[in-house]
Input
Amino acid sequence: MSDGLNGQVAGESGTFDLIILDLMLPGKNGYELLKAWRQQDHLNFPVLILTAKDTLPDKANGFALGADDYLVKPFHREELLMRIQALLRRSGQQQTVQQLTHANLVVNLAARTVLVNQQSLNLIGKEYDLLVYLLENPGIILTKMQIFQRIWGLDSTTGQTVVEVYLSTLRKKLKQAQAQLKIKTVRNVGYLLED
Output
């Protein structure tokens, strides 16, 4: 992440996979930094603007100067991570993950299959999506709202209690298959896949 004049010097080295840039920096305008970077051909790293400036002209100016993405504060941590991953994939800095593993469990993302001890585990629809989301965030507490928004979406006509129902079913299936992973309930907060 860049800040002030130090950010300009660091950016000019061109050794970054991605830069997260705030527009309101001490001593220098973030737009000026972005413009200076984009005027140099060898500085082709992705730039994600992360700022409190939320007007359409602000966003338009950022993209016009060469920003690859624009995220307004306050933001969800998961959304920031997804945007970073997408930018790194597009820039070729990150290989697309094809497989997730946890102890004796393997998820093939391309084929949407789950193996426990090399035996197929039948997870349908949201059960599979829920498992993948947990595996992508080991050691991180995910709130019911975060899970609901990610798996069902804000437009869903169902309520957040559906998260508990699906987690219960997922736990039972994983236990029956003898999968070596533990999904911990964090009371009044959410769920945690123990790393």
Q: What stands out?
A: The chain is about 40% helix and 20% strand. Residues 14 and 41 are 10 Å apart (CA to CA). The radius of gyration is 21 Å.
